[in-house]
Design goal:
The protein has a 4-stranded parallel beta sheet with strand order 1-2-3-4, covered by helices on one side. Strand 1, helix 1 and strand 2 form a beta-alpha-beta unit. The chain has 3 helices and 4 strands; from the N terminus they run βαβαβαβ. The longest helix has 16 residues. With about 90 residues, the chain is an alpha/beta fold.
Length: about 90
């Protein structure tokens, strides 16, 4: 079963250090589910961070998935052509 981290509030340049600290202890889990259902705002900084976590996980044989990504994350990922690198799950 995947470990779950639930993020809330804004995931923007102003909050990225807080977000990194919240997730740091869970990044070594073999399977990590990042619950974004309570995220109110996302900018390109968050997209970059999520891609960084995904790249590191894949390099180490781990898996990261996103749960309930907000529409603005989906839009930004599509705009940058990286939606395939940010797998999401239903639920």
């Amino acid at each position: 079963m995947a470990e779950t981290v639930k993020l809330s509030g804004a995931l923007t340049l102003d909050s990225i250090c807080r977000v990194q600290a919240e997730v740091a202890g869970s990044l070594s889990a073999p399977e990590l589910l990042i619950d974004l259902s309570e995220v109110s705002e996302i900018d390109s900084t968050a997209v970059s961070l999520l891609l960084h976590w995904q790249r590191d996980a894949l390099a180490q044989g781990r898996r990261i998935a996103l749960s309930q990504p907000p529409a603005n994350l989906t839009s930004l990922a599509a705009l940058y052509g990286v939606e395939a690198f940010l797998p999401s799950v239903q639920g």
